[in-house]
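For consistency, the fold was encoded as tokens, as this record shows:
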Amino acid sequence: MSTHEAKKTQRTVKLGSTGPEVFPLGLGCMGMSGMYGATDDAESIRTIQTAIERGVTLIDTGDFYGMGHNEMLVGRAIAGRRDRVRISVKFGALRGPDGNWLGNDTRPVAVKNFIAYSLKRLGVEYIDIYRPARLDPNVPIEDTIGAIADLVKAGYVRHIGLSEVGVETIRRAHRVHPIVDLQIEYSLASRGPEAEIFPVLNELGISATLYGVFSRGLLTGSKPKGPGDFRAYLPRFSGANREKNEDAVDALQRFAHERRMTPGQLAVAWVLARQPAFVPVVGATTVAQLEDSLGALERPLSKEDLTALEALVKISGDRYGAEQMKHLDSERH
């Protein structure tokens, strides 16, 4: 059997009790639209198309990534391949022409406006999983989910997801319409959802798509590249935390080397082993990064590996600055 055929027979993961079956790794496209510095559209398209060839089915984007640039890029990459992918789109974040963040809008009328533009930019007739990027404090979640449910009935959306919300919001949303997955940050460095959020997902039959698996490159030894790289302002990459975390990352790199893995593969393999029913979404921006992440599927970690790794690697600092953490519904307890 060829490597290509082997990938095709790879197990799948079902997104919630009502969602689609997807490949066990998803591709997150945010980094292809400049959030971490300069990117190359041609390489980004090659990366998406290689992912599809390798069996990856879940492609994740947001209408505000690069102010529409990311959706247009994904649209170009999936042209002629639509039947082989499941597209997940986040909406609701507002941005100005200078790129600044202006808040959220998930009113029903805004939901229907946002999706009209997403469908056009992506060049598709429907979106597989549509989700508000953050909880809008001015709009009851029932109203937002009700509006997406109308889009499901009309055929423009197949499934409804959530992103970065807490237990109460998950329950309220799920009462309006079945939720297939919650998108939330989770990694060896960010284990908060284990306490309350994951148990509720299991109870309700909801899956999770897990982003930030490399903790924005922290776990792979990547460092902010300059003022255009928003990581320079995050607590884990600055001040005293930075020095402590560099020591932890050195330990992780040694652990990976002993097992003939790259740090990236180790970070992905840890998530796959810890949460086998959920789907890590890796933010590869090059074919080489994608191939590296896919290699984790061939190198599962044992329970002993997990215990040893978790004892070795302790990360300091919150995943966002204090102001952003305050606005995250998923961080409210």
